[in-house]
């Protein structure tokens, strides 16, 4: 075991890669790394409760006070670490299949930096002593975690506009950690809310990822109920995917572009996004007078860049993860849902707003690959023959006159991801097909 943390914490198959023993060691590590207070929470995965208790036991054995928040979204856990000025551990594997689980470390309202993760990793791998019986820590419950988070995010929207219009919003939490908080927050803001898959059962009948395939039935319900919009979340509630009144997904790039415009109208400044963001996003930012800062994929990279960029007003990825710096330096799907309700009340039908965003043909795909590093070396060698501007900050991206392509290894799954965008559909398909062939050859 040479490396525990990927781009989004520790993540793997429960029982073989993510074990109760590992969770206990991580808890011990957090305590030994100097944190005397640790907030612990989990999403609704069936394996989560055992991992939560194991991690809490480790932290207590290291002398820490464990603050147990129970089943809450990742942004709620992050908010709690800011409130208590301490470290937090979220038991989640986000949108990964239910047989996966993981641990994400937070510190004072944001994802822990690489240095902190390496400290935890070092303690796990080197071994740690337990304290004596009379040096153990303690455990308390944090029953108001959801209430405190809602109170915080409601201060970041214009409630008067929502209360006046009272939009009808359908919420599909996919039986995940946002099942309770998202409908409640929208109701508190003044929306009429209908919950779908909002029992935090961990059954995940819809599927954990809020993608087009998994949202087919939800799309029909949005349309059938005469809703003004729909909001869908992933397993741990740090993402929000939005549907218009026709039940159609806005599209993750269009959705991000609209939110960039919305935030720039509140306050001009810099928007942080990733190498995967489309031309539609970049052009929307520039059209509204904002500056664009590009970082590698990952909400932590977005948050870190926001923290060190003077005048940064917002950050987002084309996966539905949005960072609102005034609310906290972490992706918050609950606040994102509220912001889109605000956008509807200010600007009208989301289907009409979609048509205001100039978008280009874009294709995305992923390819299973166990040996990602070796595969990427082969891919990079073959792609070097394509003539264009090469960027290797995150995988390999090549920009051409009217198109671009990005190939990068996933930080959370055994897959290689491919993104391609062009001014014309034919050009997009041809470029995608060419690079797809390169990836398949490299994967063997």
Q: What is the CATH homology-level superfamily of the largest domain? A: Alpha-D-Glucose-1,6-Bisphosphate, subunit A, domain 3
Domains, number: 3
Assign a percent range to the helix content.
25-40%
What is the mean pLDDT?
Answer: 95
The general outline is globular
Beta-strand level of the residues, as a percent range?
Answer: 15-25%
Q: Which class of secondary structure composition applies to the elements?
A: alpha/beta
Using the 3D structure, state the CATH architecture of the largest domain: 3-Layer(aba) Sandwich
Spans of at least 5 consecutive residues with low confidence:
none
Largest sheet: 7 strands, mixed
CATH class of the largest domain: Alpha Beta
Head-to-tail CA distance between termini: 26 Å
Give the tally of β-strands. Answer: 20
